[in-house]
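WARN retry 2 of 3 for item q-0093 after timeout on previous attempt; input resubmitted unchanged.
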Amino acid sequence: MATNPLNILLTRPQPKSQELATVLAPIANLIEICPLFEYAASAQALSDHSQFSDIAADIIIFVSPAAVEFALKTITIEMLSSTQVFAVGQATATRLQHRGLSNISVPERETSEGLLQLVTLQHVKDKRVIIVRGNGGREHLAQELTNRGAIVTYNEVYKRQWLPLNAEQTIEKWRKQQINCIVVTSTQILEKLFALIDDLHFANQCTWLVVSERTRQNAHALGLTKVINCQGASHQHILASIKAQLMEN
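OK item q-0093 returned
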C-alpha cells in the first residue's frame, strides 16, 4: 500500500464517516463515503417512552454512540446519576460525557469481551442490568452477564435501515476509483458489503480494516486474505492501523 495511492472506502452512516474522513484525509489520496445504512428510532422506542423509568437498574450498558443519542431522547442524564454506567467504547463514553455524565466505566479493549473483563462486572449476581443497543446484534454480553447471575434486559432504542444500492453501478465506481482499503466497523457491515461486492478477486485486492478479532475471523471465513484488526472502532484506532500498515509496506 505504500507504493500505491491510498484510496479508502468508508461505510458507516454519513456523519460518522465524514468525521473519520477528516481524520484520514492527510494520509489518503481519495476517500469514498458510501453509507450502507442509517439509524432510526426503533419500534420499541417509539411505542414505549417509559422503558427506562419503569425499570430500576443497577447497571446500564451503552453499546454505541447511537444508543446514547436515541436513549437520551427518552430519558435525562439525571435519571442515570444513581446507576453504574458502562460504555463499550470511548466514543460512546465521550457522547455521554458531552451530555453531562462523568462517571462512566470504559474497557481498554473496546469490545463486549473487554467489557466483561472489567473487575466491576465480575460480581453481578442479582444485579439488574439494562443493555441499550440497536435491534439485533450479538447476544454474548447478555448471555455472559446472565451466566454470572445478573438479571438482564435489552432496550433496543434504534434500528439500522439498510440503504438500497445498485450493486453493479456501485462496484464499477469503486473499481474506477481504485479503492484499495475498506473500513468496516461491524460484522453486519462486513457481511452486507461482501454480498454487495460479490467478487472475491476484487475484494482481495483491498486491505480490509476491521475493529475486532471476531470480525477479523469472520472476514477470513468469507475468504478475505488482507484483513487488519484495528483493535477498536475509534478514529484514532483506525488511523494508527493505517499508518502502521503503510510503514510496514
